Amino acid sequence: MPPLPPPSAAPLDDLSIHDLERLLDPVTTKHGNQLTFRNWATTFRSDAAAVFRPRSVQQVRYAVELSRRTNRTIRAAGAGHSPSDIVCTGDYILDLKGLDNVLDVDGDSRTFHAEGGILLRNLHPILLERGSLALSSLGSISDQTLAGALSTSTHGSGVTFSSISTYATFLDIVLPQPGAPVVRVSRSEDQDPDLFHAALCGLGAVGIVVGVGMRAEPVFKLEEEIFTMRFDEFTKRWQEIAESAEHVRCWWFPQVARVKISRLNRTNKAVTPGPSALSSYLQNVVLAKHIHAVALSAARYLPALLPYHAWFMWTFREQPGPVRWREFFAGIWARVSGSKTGGPWPRIEELDQDGKGAVAELPFHPVDPATLPEVRPSDVSSPSFDRTDSNESSSSKLTTPDDMLTPPYTPPTQSPVNEAVVVDRPVSPASDLELPTSIVEEVEAKTAVKQERTPMPWPILEDKPTYRVDLGVKIFNYDCGFPQYTYESCIPYESTGAALNELHQWHTHELAKPGYPLRAHFPVEIRYAAKDEAWLSPTGSGPGCYLGAIQYRPFNLPVPYREHFARFSGTLFSLFSGKPHWAKTHTLTPDDFRKLYPRFDDFLAVRERVDPKRVLANEYVKRHLLGEVPTEQMEHQGRRWKERFGVALTAIAILVYYLFFDSSSSPTVSTAVPSAQLANPSSLSRVSPSSPSGGVEPVPAPISPMTTQSSLETAAPTFAHSDVSSLTSESTKSADSTSAAKVDQKTASKASTATSSTASSRSGQEKSGTSGQTYKGEATFYFPTELTNMMQQNGNAGACGDKNSDDALICALQTEIYAGGKNCGKEVQITRTIGEGGSVAVTVADECPR
Ligand SMILES: Cc1cc2nc3c(=O)[nH]c(=O)nc-3n(C[C@H](O)[C@H](O)[C@H](O)COP(=O)(O)OP(=O)(O)OC[C@H]3O[C@@H](n4cnc5c(N)ncnc54)[C@H](O)[C@@H]3O)c2cc1C
């Protein structure tokens, strides 16, 4: 059956601005709280001039035409589930959730046509009811709108499954051109395939998607096997595991060096009964929400709790199968008695301090995007799963290999606990999706066959995997818990093992630091996606592995996350050409994307063609796609009592921490890299694992502060950047600067021993910069290679534009003191005013945004 024609687009020429406003009036909000857009995680908000909630394509056209004529930005908002400011604007928000009709479902051709604003959770039952169809792959939730999910390349997991947008056959788009035309675009030559490929992951910047034509598949059930492995085992076998089932997703718990693996295959086996209501409540509400939130709140002030909390959650919730009491108590005993053997309770003294061993020897070569293989779908090697249900056991469980790496924790007795009867605990919470019961039963009656189980061919930590069967959508989706900061990066598939080892090595050293200053929550999500064709899809150049970090916001309170994410994203970007998930906060610029995406400029050209007046360009688009400095910062107004309470608690906690816990009062040292390093994926130095201090402070990722960050975040207890420096602007670079540098190299050397590399402050009092004046503020300076062997300029130009040799003593000044480049090239004396003191003369070369 041919698809329905696109909605008609009669010209709007006769309508004045006043007419457009009048026609939009019934769906316009101009005053009150409803003007505030907040994303799901409440990490970003913006107050719009007006919010339109159209119920028809015609109303979308009016809104787009009005924006164009009045030179206002308009941003499509789906369900607001993107964890960044991608939707935010101070102009017009177009809330599309009212555009939620399913226009056609064709069970024979396995296609459907729906409006872009429909929530996926509402789409599922309609596809099931009207065509016995289901989407082939889904992410962890179904709370996004269809067009919103497409627009950021939302993905599930599976080496032969691409982003959800891959399944789109055509898109109906309202363009911000005169008269706001509606166009239908597709892969077909006569339907603007360029616009189609740009709009498949269009970030709301190439038009408003009002209709989506899509392929689906006959409704299916999935069988899920969940089991766990030691991290070192997993990194050796990740590929074999990834390719062993249709959908494989994994959760790595770095604090306990364990990986939970979920393998999904289509099946005809009978649906397994869910957990009892009580068990489900205890696991998914009491443990996963309340206890988790309380512990994470406490860890805001006592971060050293986090590894223990991770272990607690691992033991009682995350690992499938029965609680391993023996292992748990063995761990406690080992901890209490100081014994080196016992359970895998966090034992930071056993960490691999010298970095020797297989991890340190892995070849960490930066991946040049230009050299990435052009993998066609047919080139992707066939995963070794069998779509039909097999009753044969392929091999028995392997024994623990001799060449196992020294684990960060004492291994759990090296063999799983053997219980006579394995009582399965509930795994991920049952989805609360509402699907038509009668049809579900019908599917079940037609297809269900007897269950058979296949043993795992890997050294897993259980006797056998936990197992369940249900409708696909109910298995794909799971409860993501409470609001969170998230970051996700897509690296080339083949780099998965090396990237995990790199992250592991970094995290291991962080864990060894007293008090666990990194404060990382858990887990790291590991998912895979096949190559697809959207120009801005992170897997547009080849199959990829998505690695995602999470920092939860217990009771919606802020937690520190920037330093952690900065290093996480920086490592993946710099060493593995990691591409950030478009929906999440990141710091990449058009130049970075140009290197990562071969069609980036094509995308920009299409964008310019359809939106020459930049009606769809908000700050996110200007910052990341167009490279324009945002002209205004979003104001964060009004805080709820909880947030105010959180700020007060934080202040008290910081005081208590410094008075009672942080006896050394030694500043936590942080470093930064010039923004120029962003452009050079190979420029990040590797952490020197042999530092006497248990690992030098790693080079943090080149994350620059978002101009639109939540104000809440600043209330987080941040112990970095705690020492005060005064910066004296001595003179502009002069003839005697060489001798000054010579003298100061000695000082710098001393300072490096004492403080690693940075002098920084938050006092923020500064005087404007002319020669001889004193500033108080924050600076980051870079030591010559021979002094530290870690921080190098690597020939990159800083914000001042000059390339500096690795011998140069240069610094980056905080934005206010940098003063738009006014102090570039000046020689300044940086003096630490607390701690051991020390000073160094350096030349201003870069800006250091905080
Ligand atoms: C708890 C949680 C779990 C998640 N799980 C996953 C996951 O498993 N996999 C994954 O890849 N991502 C995941 N995400 C991210 C999420 O899928 C994306 O952020 C998605 O874009 C959100 O869709 P939305 O409808 O909320 O769109 P929004 O966040 O409202 O908008 C996202 C982008 O789409 C644009 N947009 C929205 N509607 C339209 C339209 N009609 N026309 C044109 N542009 C439009 C917006 O302008 C914006 O640029 C998750 C997010 C959360 C909060």
Automatic annotation (TrEMBL):
Region feature (Disordered): 361-416, 677-776
Domain called FAD-binding PCMH-type: residue spans: 44-219
Annotated keywords: Oxidoreductase
Top enzyme category: oxidoreductase
UniProt-listed InterPro entries: ALO_C, FAD-bd_PCMH, FAD-bd_PCMH-like_sf, FAD-bd_PCMH_sub1, FAD-bd_PCMH_sub2, FAD_lactone_oxidase-like, Oxid_FAD_bind_N, RlpA-like_sf
Biased composition (Low complexity): 677-698, 728-761
Pathway membership: Cofactor biosynthesis; D-erythroascorbate biosynthesis; dehydro-D-arabinono-1,4-lactone from D-arabinose: step 2/2
Annotated Gene Ontology cellular component terms: membrane; mitochondrion
TM ranges: none
A Pfam family hit: FAD_binding_4
Biased composition (Polar residues): 379-399, 762-774
Coiled coil segments of this chain: none
EC number: 1.1.3.37
GO molecular function, one term: FAD binding
PANTHER family: D-ARABINONO-1,4-LACTONE OXIDASE (PTHR43762:SF1), L-GULONOLACTONE OXIDASE (PTHR43762)
Protein name, entry field: D-arabinono-1,4-lactone oxidase
Organism whose genome encodes this protein: Rhodotorula taiwanensis
